Amino acid sequence: MKKIYFTVLIIFIFKTGFSQEINFDIHNTTLEDYIKMEEKLGSERIPNTSYHISFSGEAQPIRYKRKEKIIPDLIVEYYFKKKDSTMSYILYEWDVNNFEKKDNNKKNKKFEKALMEKYLNLKEKISNIYGKPIVKSNYSNIAELDAKNLFEESSTWTPNDSTEIKMNITISNYYEKKGGITINPTHRIRLYIKKKSKKEQVSLKLDDDKINELDLIAKSFFAVLAEKDIEKSKSFFSKAIVGRINEKIMNQIINNVNFKKEFKLVYSGTQITMTGKRYAILNYIYSDDNKNKPMTIIKLMFDDDNKIIGFIPMIRNKTTIK
User: Minimal CA–CA distance to 271: which of 206, 208, 207, 213?
Assistant: First the structure.
């Protein structure tokens, strides 16, 4: 009898300790409760470094930093409704780039092992509570460039029809610089806890992970075009249009756009076509183009497989955009 009691007690302590650091009950926990939890943990309240644009009435997030050993310090962001402070979602992020912004910032095996162990430990604990997740691996363009040295995984749990838990990790020391296009090493874990309505409509926005994933693909695509490698560029296109891509079309684009220059992402979102299909969109301009109306805009549309379904360079002349 004592043995059974001891086992149950250990499980209870395990779950309680975990919930003190990460509270998944976003529906029944108030913003005030989360703030008190951070204060109890000794977290540091930190300012926002960017302006959060919301189309659903959210206020600017409240952010905290928690100290870690070996891996990057944890940044926690609480998103809530401006009207009544009800929770929308929470982001937990362990990202080297939050603290070390430099090119070719490679990490040693000890660091990478510690970050991977953090992810796998979280994955195991969440799975013990909510069951086996849906998992995707090596889904970004880095997998094509350096799959051997890449650890990339996304895990998604759906405890009920109004909550989603999503966690992903990227560990990569891959570095490439071609002209103005740079692919830097990435060492990051992101964990989202999202509140969903039962009849949630498709968002017009792209989440940060999707933007980063597509941005990396776009910049790799630009780097290939900078090398005028038309054959290799075809690997970026969707099967629906790759058959219509020919050398004449690509040469016209390459000759009119300077792909060796650095590009800046200025817009991300989605677009519904006449067929009712929704596609992700990224718009780019030259980084050094400071005009109110940019001279060149590159519009990319991506399908569900992150392949380019639309590639529209818009080049402004003196009076209009072609």
Answer: 206
Determine the 3-state secondary structure of 54 from DSSP. Answer: coil
229 in helix, strand or coil?
A: coil
**Segment holding 169, helix H or strand E:** strand 163-172
Q: Which of 207, 169, 209 is nearest to 189 (CA)?
A: 169
- Which two structure tokens, joined as six digits, stand for 304? 């569900």
Q: Is 235 exposed, middle or buried (0-12, 13-18, 19+ CB in 10 A)?
A: middle
Q: What are the CA-CA distances from residue 246 to residues 15, 45, 97, 253, 318 (Å)?
A: 58, 54, 39, 11, 29
Listed in order, the ranges of the chain carrying CATH 3.10.450.590 are 216-315
Report the residue count for the chain: 322
Digits of tens for pLDDT over the chain (322 positions)?
343 333 333 333 334 445 568 999 898 899 999 999 999 999 999 999 888 877 778 899 999 999 999 999 999 999 999 999 999 999 999 999 999 988 999 999 999 999 999 999 999 999 988 899 999 988 777 777 788 889 999 999 998 888 999 999 999 999 988 777 788 999 999 999 998 865 444 456 788 888 999 999 999 999 999 888 888 988 998 888 888 888 888 888 888 888 888 899 999 988 876 555 788 999 999 888 887 778 888 899 998 889 998 888 887 654 333 3
- Single out the residue of 125, 186, 171, 134 nearest to residue 156, CA to CA: 134
Q: Cβ distance 188 to 96 under 8 Å?
A: yes
- pTM of the predicted model as reported, rounded to 2 decimal places: 0.63
Is the CB of residue 141 less than 8 Å from the CB of residue 220? yes
Q: Taking a C-beta distance cutoff of 8 angstroms, is the pair 82, 123 a contact?
A: no
Residue 42 to residue 207: CA distance in whole angstroms: 29
At the topology level, CATH places domain 216-315 in Nuclear Transport Factor 2; Chain: A, (3.10.450)
